[in-house]
Amino acid sequence: MRILFVTPRFPFPLRRGHQVRAFHQLRLLSARNRITLFAVSSEDAPPDAMEAVAPFCEEIVPVRHPPAAAAAGAMRGAFSGLPLQAGVFAGAALRRRLEETIRRRRPDVVHVQLARMAPVCEEGVGVPRVMDLVDSLSLNMERRFRRDRGPARWAAYAEWKSMARYERKIAATWEHVTVVSPVDRRAIGDFPRLSVNPNGVDLRQFAFVPDGRAAATVVFTGNLGYFPNVDALTWFAGEILPSIRREVPSAVFRVSGARPAAAVRALAGGEGVRIERDVDRIEGALAGATVAVAPMRAGSGQLLKILEAMASGVPVVATSLAASAFDFVSGRELLVADDAAEFASAVSRLLRDPDEAKAIALRARRRVEERYGWERSVADLERIYASVARSSPESSPSDR
What we know:
Elements: E1 2-7, H1 17-29, E2 34-41, H2 47-53, E3 59-64, H3 67-80, H4 84-87, H5 92-105, E4 109-113, E5 129-134, H6 137-147, H7 151-173, E6 176-179, H8 182-188, E7 194-196, E8 217-223, H9 227-247, E9 252-258, H10 262-265, E10 273-276, H11 283-287, E11 291-294, H12 304-312, E12 316-318, H13 320-323, E13 335-336, H14 340-352, H15 354-371, H16 374-391
Parallel strand pairs: 1-2, 1-4, 2-3, 4-5, 5-6, 6-7, 8-9, 8-11, 9-10, 11-12, 12-13
């Protein structure tokens, strides 16, 4: 099958969850399909990024979308009722470039990642479309509104309401739409062409390390400038870590990721806190950790940080918000806690009881192997492609 794969960022380096998802989808889809990557970015992709993705693609179409064009699109979008994030990509230039690529490459299906990219591929392109929302951005913005403070809170409120309408429109009009979890699907609504296509983890990259870990090392990984992560980190460092260190004085909180916000950088002066900035690969941090935490109070989707920790053999403590997107059982594959005292107690318990920590880690790794390999997720995606291509009047068996 010929696939035109459209992304809002170049899918390498793997710094954000949607980049990781796109990279592994491309990697596995390329074994049985012919892929053209249409990657929109504010700047040119560096040579190493092109080299990382090139083996998966017949052609890469890098599309510059400079900040001035994004700002103009956002202003036009605001007057037409688009969410701010979608308005950034609204405009005739991107649409024309996509239509030219469709005419030249003649794909059987167009795969578009994230709701913000929908304006580039609205109805009338003549090819069946699959939208991978990944998560519900309206749910994400709602939760940010309930946690944030100041002017940003009201910007989140406006985006929540606007994006909720836009996600429902996409779910009702595109040939197929996917999200990563039932929680995200419920947030958007019960649309027949909206289905769950979970995240995965590369089990070779995140190899299981059962022994030889540093003592009393608590790890958090991810995009350190993303609001839900910033909120989680400041809550953990301020209200949870001190209680853990009273129980386990040697405990160290190791934060590993990229682009830390000012509030995260400020944590580096705290007792027992270690901030590792601009880390592209977090396997080493996980291989040396005793416990991984996901103290999320905002956000949406399925957290790759949970899957990557479980694959690596690190027991996880998470809030119910973070755990709800998965089918893991608290007390079996992870521990779930929601207030600061309970969260501190759960982490301290695993730090003091290596046998329980190891048992949870083993059960979690088995469950990840059964349910959350990228191979299973991409196989489901290929079935979706085949279904929309068969049902579309725009394509025929001879085209495929």
